[in-house]
Each structure stands twice: as C-alpha cells, then as structure tokens.
Amino acid sequence: MSDWLAAIILGLVEGLTEFIPVSSTGHLLLLGHFMGFESTGKTFEVVIQLGAILAIISVYFQRLWTLAIRWPTDPGARHFILGLLIAFLPAAAAGVLLYPVIKGFLFETPLIICVALIVGGVLLLWLDRMKRAPRYLDVNTYPMRVYLFIGLFQCLALVPGVSRSGATIAGGLLLGTDKRSAAEFTFFLALPTMGGAVAWDLYKTWDQLDFTDVGLIAVGFATAFLTALLVVRFLLDFVSRHGFAPFAWWRIGVGVAGLALIAAGVGG
C-alpha cells in the first residue's frame, strides 16, 4: 500500500472515530500496525489530530465565541467554563505523569488495544440498555460534581482502545445525563483535552519530529478535518435516534478482528 493511500485512510479513520465512542487512537494504532505505516518521528499521527480539533471549532464557533465574550458578566458562562476546566484537569495530570508508560508500553501493545475495544463495547451495550430517567439534559448546567466525575472517567481513555468519548459518555450516563447531552459534552471536552495532548506530544517529541513528509501530513490533516466535520454535525441526531449500540457492536467487531490478525501473525 502506498504512503499516500495510507495517509488518506488514516485521516478518514481519525476524523470518523475521534468523536464517537470507538477509540480513534485504538483504530489508528491498529491500522498503522497492520498496514506497516509509521511516519518519521510519528509527526503524521500527532498532527492529523489537529484536523479533528478544527472541525469542533468550526461547528461550535458561535457558541465558543459567545462564551468567550460573555464569561466576565454571565454566571452561566462562567459555570460552564469552570466545569469544563474541572473535567479536563484529571486526565491532563494523569497524562503528564503516566506519559512514558502510555507511549512506551500501552501504545505499542496491539493486544491491549483489542481487549480494551471488546470490553468497552460490552460495557457500552450495557449502558445503552440501562433504564434510568436522566436528570441532567443541558451541558451548560451540569452540577460541578458531574463535571468532575466525567473528567475522572476520561482518565480511563489513557489506555488506547478505551475511547475518550466513550469514557466520558459512560461517565455522564452513570451520573444521570441523557445520551444527547453526554455526547455533546465530549465535543467541548475534546478541545482542551486533545489540544493539550497534542501540545504535550509535540513538546516531548520535538527533537524526533520530521516534517519532510509535509504532503502526507497535509492530506491526512485535510481528510481528518472534513470527515470529523460530518461526524460532529450529525452525531447528536444519530445518537438521539439509535443510541450507542451500533458503536458498541463496531468496537467488539474490530477488537475480535484485531485479535484474529494478531493470532495469524499479521503486521508488526
């Protein structure tokens, strides 16, 4: 497979999976493993995530701008911004402290990724079928403890294959949010979390980065942006109609396929 085709495929996968509860990192790592694709210094894998971040900013620009200009005088805006910060901090602290283990071991072990995909899929099926009347329907007015515990749940996503959005959605549902607002909060929480993760990655690997493959990086970035844009625009309505079961079954299928390929000695 050519590097150009691999860049397009990986960009598509990043954009399609970043904001749904299937683990974009798990998918990218497994694909890279089985396709034998790895950019110099992993620059490609780091930079294309910015395409997904840009998609969130594009769709929610008006709301983000409103928050930015109203927070000094609007208690509601300050409540949400503070809640977002509280939700972001646990994973940020854990990510910095555990960075060597995450990058040096977990990211290099496809077996762990496959098992995490399957286990997460089973748990998501259970949560999707759980009968519980939601108490919190608006991401802007969650109680502070809900923001905090969603942030603690997000720490689980430091294990590749768990899924950042899946962990935050699971936390939200267990704490009493509805499915739609739980999915929407993952969009907002992605901005500081993904932005911080990319910035930390760039800082820690700056001496290894190589932008000689700028064409591949640009293709992957653009593909990730466009596909993520579609996901962000349509995900909330999809979740409202179909729940999370389709994503749960997808996770299980990918995890089982990955285990089969590992057993067959493919990749690596």
Which percent range fits the helix content?
over 70%
Whole-number radius of gyration? 18 Å
Overall pLDDT, averaged? 87
The major pleated sheet works out as:
none
Beta strands, count = 0
Q: Give the SSE string.
A: HHHHHHHHHHHHH
Uncertain spans:
none
Specify the number of helices. Answer: 13
Structural class by helix and strand composition: mainly alpha
Q: Write down the overall geometry.
A: globular
Strand content: under 5%
Distance between the termini: 15 Å
What does this molecule look like?
The structure is a single chain. This protein has 13 helices and no strands. With 268 residues, the chain is mainly α. It has one domain. α6 (75-97) crosses α11. The longest helix has 29 residues, at 214-242. The radius of gyration is 18 Å and the shape is globular. The mean pLDDT is 87.
Can I get a quick summary?
The protein has 13 helices and no strands. It is mainly alpha-helical.
